[in-house]
Every structure is written in C-alpha cells, then in structure tokens.
Amino acid sequence: xxxxxxxxxxxxxxxxxxxxxxxxxxxxxxxxxxxxxxxxxxxxxxxxxxxxxxxxxxxxxxxxxxxxxxxxxxxxxxxxxxxxxxxxxxxxxxxxxxxxxxxxxxxxxxxxxxxxxxxxxxxxxxxxxxxxxxxxxxxxxxxxxxxxxxxxxxxxxxxxxxxxxxxxxxxxxxxxxxxxxxxxxxxxxxxxxxxxxxxxxxxxxxxxxxxxxx
Length: 214
Ligand SMILES: Nc1ncnc2c1ncn2[C@@H]1O[C@H](COP(=O)(O)OP(=O)(O)O)[C@@H](O)[C@H]1O
Ligand SMILES: [Mg+2]
Hints:
Blueprint: E1 2-5, H1 12-18, E2 31-32, E3 35-36, H2 41-48, E4 51-54, H3 66-77, H4 82-95, H5 111-123, E5 129-133, H6 141-157, E6 161-165, H7 169-175, E7 178-183, E8 186-192, H8 193-196, H9 203-211
Parallel strand pairs: 1-6, 1-7, 4-5, 5-6
Antiparallel strand pairs: 2-3, 7-8
Helix pairs in contact: 3-4, 3-5, 5-6
C-alpha cells in the first residue's frame, strides 16, 4: 500500500496516470512485475486489464444499470461468462452493502454509493493493482468513511498492491506501508508509512503535515 502525499499541483495525479499509460513520459522507466514496460498502445491496453483505477469523479455510464456498469468490462473486454461475472458482481455488491441497487441507475445513487460502485467495477476485472486518486475528495463527509472502509478492507487482504492519493491523513497513516511525498513534480521523500507521519525526513513534508493539522 503506497500512499502519494503532497500539496495540490505537486504531480500526484500525473504520476498515477503515468502508471496506467494515460500520461506520456519523457524519461525514466516503468517496471511492472519486474518487467520494463515498453510504452506503446498495445502494451498499455494489455496492462490496463491488470490495473484497476478509481478517480475522484466516478465515471459510471449513466445509461446503464449498476449491474451492467459492473459486468461490461469483464464480459466485453475479458470475454468472461456472464453468469460467472454476475455472481461475482453480486458478491462484491454485498461486501459494499449495495446488493439492493443492482438494477438502479447511477443518477439514483448518492456520491458515496457511486464511488463504492466504481470500486466494485474496478475489482470485477480482477486487477493485480489498484490506483486510487482522491476518491473521497468530492464526497460529503458522512460518505467518506464508508468508501475508506472498503479500501481498508482491500488493504487488509494483503494480495493486492495499491497506490493511493488521498488527503485523509488519519486513513493514510493507518494503511500506508510506504509514503511518497511529492513537491513540484518530484518525489522528495520515500519513507516507510510507520515513520513518515511522526518523523518525516524533509522540512517540506513536516510543513505539509502541519498544514493538514497533523
Ligand atoms: N514530473 C512532472 N514533470 C512535468 N510536469 C509535471 C510533473 N508532475 C506534474 N506536472 C504538472 O504539474 C501540474 C499539476 O500536477 P497534478 O498531477 O495535477 O498535481 P496533483 O494531483 O498533485 O494536484 C500538471 O499541469 C502536470 O502536468
Ligand atoms: Mg490530483
């Protein structure tokens, strides 16, 4: 569980988008499971099937039900059997307390519910990696907890690598195995999670934590 922290504009989203081939890079290398990624469209298409991504704005298809949103990728892209995918989708919906909503449309859901569906939709693709970029940033405070709990459960499962951008400092402290602190498009610090919050290495990170009242 890697957490990206840093002030607004420091490059957190850019870095996370780079890891999914959504952003071109001019130097450096990306290594996935020990293999250097050759950045072309075809390779990214293959890799993206292993990488689940959830953003601040839940981009569910408005014209599809919750269930159809979830099973679209697994059935159309991964060509998995519909019955199997639906059964798995229901199990995931149950986990996020939204089993009753499979026939609902996104407009009928609250922001927190939509974001939980967006997470389920990503998980239904059996990703090896999950990328989360400020997934709670646009939610009402009472919705934040439910979404963070789901991510925390995933973190506890131990078999999934996750890279998370968040401004929820308590949450970050609880879950982060490793913190990357960014500033001006650069990684200023790469510190174990259990050290960063009490003993950041740089003055800039210390100031950042203070500015977050942490
Ligand atoms: N490593 C980098 N090199 C060049 N430009 C960068 C780099 N990282 C970020 N930027 C630029 O900085 C701006 C803010 O980055 P962004 O990723 O949106 O920040 P954050 O998500 O931390 O708020 C963007 O315009 C982006 O193109
Ligand atoms: Mg951002």
